[in-house]
Design a protein that fits this description.
With 484 residues, this protein is mostly helical. Helix content is 69%, strand content 0%. The termini are far apart. It has 18 helices and no strands. α13 crosses α17.
């Protein structure tokens, strides 16, 4: 039995319109039914769930520990003896790795078994975990206008800070010149703009969740595990001013990303293979959060987010025939509503023809185009258009093309376009499903999981009691005895 989300998870597409209209009140019931079906399929596909979970966690623990230790050793070799804080952070990371591979593995196994179906009530356990996840997504959709406004204000503050930064730079340069520090003034005129932009960007990602998510997606999509590690370390340092913690979070994030990539390379053409891939990914995610100091509840949430991430990616690839790519779009968009042979029309192979070679059209007379046969990196955000249409909502317009350049948004556009075509969604419902498509895409790209990993590390560090430093005893001066 091959994994086909269009066939196996058909209820999701049918219920999207109702879910959007009612907010997310009925999402729990729909998710519970869908997850119950998944639970039964997983139990039927795996004859011994306990053994499979133990193997998945053990394999993930070994792979994660190796990736973490290799990453930490490489960083240690690169850093050498130049930084005491860096050496201490790497040593702490090694200890956390050992904890993740031993004590934390026990908590991960328990969370996995609770969520994946082992125990007295497997369907209820899975439904409970998945309903919570679906409600979180539903609540995020409902809060979209509020989040957009919060992000808009944060971006406005960033732009104001960027516009006023050159004034402060010139004022400081004038002050230094008056003191006769000419070389110092020239140096700061060159370097201060970079410093100010970095400081302003750090404030922006801490205040704007969407911008933070875009940064995470861009760092991982273009830089791989190393880019994701660097972003996590930078964000953590700017949030805490703790270099040791920042390096540790970067190491663990990079290793988790490498583990996800390895799990993503596994075959996922059948239900058992998808189940195994989800278990391995969930185990890697749970172990990384455990290594960051997370408790059993955090491990459980990490499992749901990371396993859900790979399920969304598999479903996306089956729907679009392309892997979920978080990179920005490239080049101009095609005129998807144009006739074949038009200068901006998509490839001829994307058009649909009948047995007589005649072009197949929809009810409105537009040619039917298979978006899956079009370059996935071409802009796909906005309305399909004809040549010369560069309006506000047009795919070829500067506004929508600019949005498609935001990391993650073009992947959302491709998935949403194929969903609309496959399910014959009308214009009104097409607009209503954009918000859920954004949320699902960002979950699939892992941004909620990496947020959890960073916040768990930061919260865990805050909860640790500060170590009392021993004050050195003052040395007594030796008094020479006077000879009588």
């Amino acid at each position: 039995m091959r994994w086909n989300p269009i066939r196996d998870v058909g209820n999701i597409g049918t219920n999207i319109g109702k879910t959007v209209k009612k907010g997310a009140q009925d999402t729990g019931k729909a998710a519970e039914k869908a997850v119950n079906d998944i639970a039964r399929a997983a139990k039927k596909a795996m004859h011994d769930t306990d053994t499979a979970i133990d193997k998945a966690v053990n394999d993930a623990a070994v792979a994660t520990k190796k990736a973490l230790k290799d990453t930490a050793t490489a960083r240690q070799k690169a850093i050498g003896d130049t930084s005491t804080a860096a050496r201490k952070a790497i040593a702490d990371t090694h200890r956390a790795i050992d904890k993740a591979g031993n004590d934390a593995a026990v908590a991960t196994k328990k969370a996995l078994k609770d969520v994946a179906g082992a125990g007295a009530k497997p369907e209820a356990d899975i439904a409970k975990a998945a309903v919570k996840a679906s409600r979180d997504v539903g609540n995020e959709i409902i809060r979209t206008p509020e989040n957009l406004e919060r992000n808009r204000l944060a971006i406005n503050r960033f732009l104001v800070a960027e516009l006023t930064a050159p004034i402060h730079t010139l004022q400081e340069a004038e002050r230094r010149i008056r003191k006769g520090k000419i070389a110092d003034a020239i140096w700061h005129v060159v370097t201060d703009p970079i410093k100010h932009t970095e400081e302003n960007a750090a404030k922006l990602v801490q205040e704007a969740s969407l911008v933070r998510a875009v940064g995470q997606i861009a760092a991982t999509a273009y830089g791989g595990p190393g880019g994701g590690a660097a972003y996590a370390a930078w964000y953590t340092y700017r949030a805490t001013n703790d270099a040791e913690l920042a390096l540790r979070v970067g190491l663990i994030s990079g290793a988790a990303s490498a583990g996800f990539d390895a799990a993503g390379a596994m075959s996922s053409s059948t239900v058992p293979e998808v189940t195994r891939q989800a278990l391995i990914t969930g185990a890697v995610g749970g172990l990384a959060v455990a290594a960051s100091g997370g408790d059993e509840a955090a491990v459980r949430e990490a499992f749901v987010l990371s396993a859900g991430m790979v399920l969304i990616q598999d479903g996306y690839e089956a729907l679009t025939q392309h892997p979920m790519d978080g990179r920005a779009s490239e080049g101009p968009a095609f005129c998807m509503s144009s006739e074949p042979g038009t200068p901006c029309s998509p490839p001829k192979a994307a058009y649909s023809f009948d047995k007589d070679g005649k072009l197949i059209r929809d009810n409105e007379g537009n040619p039917i185009v298979d978006v899956r046969k079009v370059n996935p990196r071409v802009p796909k955000v906005g309305r399909w258009c004809l040549p010369g249409d560069t309006g506000l909502l047009s795919e070829r317009g500067p506004f929508m093309t600019g949005i498609s350049r935001i990391p993650g948004w073009n992947a959302m556009g491709l998935g949403h376009d194929q969903f609309v075509v496959a399910w014959h969604v009308g214009d009104l419902m097409s607009i209503a499903t954009i918000a859920p498509a954004i949320v699902v895409t960002y979950v699939g790209l892992g941004t909620p999981y990496y947020d959890l990993l960073r916040e768990t590390s930061i919260d865990s560090a805050k909860e640790k009691p500060a170590k009392l430093q021993k004050q050195p005893r003052p040395k007594r001066k030796k008094q020479l005895r006077r000879k009588r």
